[in-house]
Design a protein that fits this description.
The complex is a heterodimer. Chain A is mainly alpha-helical. Chain A has a domain of about 160 residues: MetI-like fold, CATH 1.10.3720. Chain A is built from 14 helices and no strands. In chain A, helix 8 runs antiparallel to helix 11. Chain A is globular and about 75 Å long. By secondary structure, chain B is mostly helical. Chain B has a domain of about 230 residues: MetI-like (MetI-like fold, Orthogonal Bundle), CATH 1.10.3720. Chain B has twelve helices and two strands. In chain B, strand 1 and strand 2 form a beta hairpin. In chain B, helix 3 packs parallel to helix 7, helix 4 packs across helix 7 and helix 11 packs antiparallel against helix 12. Chain B starts with about 35 loop residues before the first helix and ends in a 15-residue tail after the last helix. Classes of the chains: A mainly alpha, B mainly alpha. The interface between A and B is large, with 132 and 128 residues.
């Protein structure tokens, strides 16, 4: 492209405005639609966040109004109380260990399925793929009994292990084609250099599949962070509650204190939002299937 | 072996990996070592063992156990002894509450497709153009999908209370006549639920479709526009047909998700209100009448019914709709 010849302001956005002849008016329509949609999408979220800055009497007087004056007390109360941080801690432990488990176990199994020839390979892939058909909802009651028999009710492990298991199908379905796409030539080169197949796995596959792994890990983490049904069954002791359970308990316990519930709720969505905005490129990229490293 | 066909066929359905470059690898990837060598077997066992163990114990076994417990009346303690045959299933099929829940699920499935599909396609087409703030807009649309159902549900139930923000806002702008009890009124509640579902999940559809749109070569639309096609002609004749595989995958995920809807309904309507407000689903019925009622055998039977319905829908869909997409538009599933 002969970009050099263009004036400097065109230089900055040569890829943005493609010369397909969109008129300024039609672009205007797009922006208006986009603006309306975004307002609709964000209004409820904004209501929760802003509502947290009001007092209960403000909310009763005018449920849809703005804070007048803005009060930070609700947020300060939530942030200085121990409950919120305990819930965040539990959710973090569950989320991180779930992600770790899903990634490690999923990567290992995917590697075997993708790059070894053995008789049960097809059956194994089909078995994991069939797991997509079993959401937690269907298996929840016997799953609870399994966890109970292992003595893991009211422990975080009782949530983590099933979450790993239910995260494996998606992980393997995403990673297997990814690992198959690594050229045989690289493997041959590694073998010529004396690497075993497991050595090849550690030195080559893990780094090369990192983009796919990141996508899978993010999906697992967000799924775990937002998970409700499984913790609801497994965790009955409030000290083990994860954030979703805590939010629900808090909102029923303080149902008269609407402002505090709003502050609590908006703080509890913050971590997921931060996490998402850091990694959004990966998520979108992972869904495209064209993960760019 | 027929299962073999389900394996992704190497490069064709796999993600366009950056590592692939121009090198084409022969299809069956690994044949370096002879299959039977003990070392190779040991490696396979080490690699797949942990995943298989966890998966069998926490996914496959519970699902099979559900089928077994479904034949018993059982309170969840000890070994189930009171075999009741198909009695649980007879009760389910005759329970008007369950049939109502099934009806709600059907409505939710249909309305999810009808509402979210067109909205999402339209938005994706509009947002697919190169524009300022593209990334920001995409992120913002995706936000409701990322927030947990519990948070979303708590927030919405506060907004939608009779004396909540929505009714108060309607009053303020002079539309007081439109004030309704959004949550408890059985004529309105299912639409309230659909509104919330659309709000929460449409962003996922948009992102999926945008991803699909990126796979359509620009040359096609460029050639068409040189030939004088208008923007909407291009979308209708070129983009939409090529987006077909993505649309069909999305519809599949949406249907399965709608059949198994639980969190939102349970959070917003709770275990008692959902059925009177007309928003109960099979999954909330399962939890309320199984675990909460202490009838674990019965709950398992409901789970089996829910699973069989999902399975039939999935198989029919794959047989008649997805079969066309031999290439598989997406390798990643939504959740």
């Amino acid at each position: 492209m002969a970009v050099e010849a263009l004036p400097s302001n065109a230089l900055r956005r040569p890829r943005r405005s493609r010369p397909t002849g969109h008129s300024a008016a039609s672009n205007g329509v797009v922006y208006v639609v986009a603006a309306v949609v975004i307002v609709l999408m964000l209004a409820p979220v904004a209501y929760i966040v802003i509502g947290g800055f009001r007092t209960n009497s403000q909310i009763t007087d005018s449920p849809a109004g703005f804070p007048a004056p803005w009060v930070a007390k609700n947020y300060v109360d939530v942030l200085t109380g121990g409950l919120f941080w305990r819930l965040v801690g539990n959710s973090l432990i569950v989320g991180l260990l779930t992600t770790l488990g899903v990634v490690v176990l999923g990567l290992m199994a995917s590697f075997a399925i993708a790059r070894y020839e053995y008789r049960l390979r097809g059956a194994m892939y089909a078995l994991f793929a069939a797991g997509l058909m079993f959401p937690v909802t269907v298996a929840i009651t016997p799953l609870y009994i399994v966890v109970k028999n292992l003595g893991l009710t009211n422990t975080l492990a009782g949530v983590i292990l099933p979450q790993i298991a239910f995260g494996l199908p998606t992980t393997i379905i995403i990673l297997v084609p990814f690992l198959r796409a690594i050229p045989v030539e690289i493997q041959e080169a590694a073998e010529i250099d004396g690497a075993s197949r497991l050595g090849f796995f550690w030195r080559m596959v893990v780094p090369l599949s990192l983009p796919g792994v990141v996508t899978v890990g993010i999906l697992a983490f967000i799924g775990s962070w937002n998970g409700y049904l499984l913790p609801l069954f497994i965790l009955n002791n409030p000290s083990t509650f994860t954030l979703p359970l805590g939010v629900q308990q808090f909102s029923s316990q303080y149902s008269v204190d609407t402002a505090r519930v709003l502050a609590f709720t908006s703080l509890s969505m913050l971590p997921a939002l931060i996490f998402f905005s850091i990694f959004q490129r990966r998520i979108v990229g992972g869904l495209t299937g064209a993960v760019k490293g | 072996m027929t299962v073999r066909e389900q394996l992704p066929t190497g490069r064709s359905s796999g993600p366009r990996s950056t590592t692939g470059g121009g090198v084409t690898s022969p299809l069956p990837v690994a044949r370096r070592r002879s299959t039977g060598s003990w070392r190779s077997r040991l490696e396979i066992a080490v690699l797949t063992g942990p995943a298989l163990a966890v998966f069998l114990l926490f996914v496959i076994f519970p699902v099979l156990a559900a089928a077994y417990y479904g034949f018993y009346r059982w309170a969840g303690y000890g070994v189930p002894t009171q075999f009741v045959g198909l009695q649980n299933y007879v009760t389910i099929v005759q329970d008007p509450t369950f049939l109502a829940a099934l009806g709600h699920n059907t409505v939710i499935v249909v309305l999810s497709l009808v509402l979210q599909g067109p909205i999402a396609v339209l938005l994706a087409l509009l947002l697919n153009r190169k524009m300022r703030g593209q990334t920001l807009i995409r992120v913002l649309i995706f936000i409701p999908y990322v927030i947990s159902e519990v948070v979303v549900g708590t927030g919405w139930s506060l907004i939608l209370q009779t004396s909540g923000a929505l009714n108060s806002a309607l009053q303020a702008v002079g539309l007081g006549a439109l004030k309704v009890d959004w949550l408890a009124n059985p004529d309105v509640a299912i639409w309230t639920l659909m509104g919330i579902i659309t709000w929460k999940y449409v962003g996922f559809a948009v992102i999926l479709f945008l991803a699909g749109l990126q796979g359509i070569p620009e040359e096609l639309t460029e050639a068409a526009s040189i030939d004088g096609a208008t923007f909407w002609q291009i979308q209708r004749r070129i983009t939409l047909p090529l987006l077909g595989p993505t649309l069909r995958i999305w519809a599949f995920l949406s249907v399965i998700g709608a059949l198994q809807l639980f969190d939102l309904v349970y959070i917003i309507w709770g275990q008692y209100v959902a059925s009177t407000a007309g928003t109960s689903t099979m999954a909330t019925y399962l939890v309320v009448n199984g675990r909460n009622a202490g009838s674990y055998g019965y709950g398992n039977a409901v789970a089996v019914v829910l699973f069989v319905i999902s399975l039939i829908v999935a198989l029919v869909y794959q047989r008649f709709v997805l079969r066309r997409d031999t290439e598989g538009a997406l390798t990643g599933k939504g959740r």
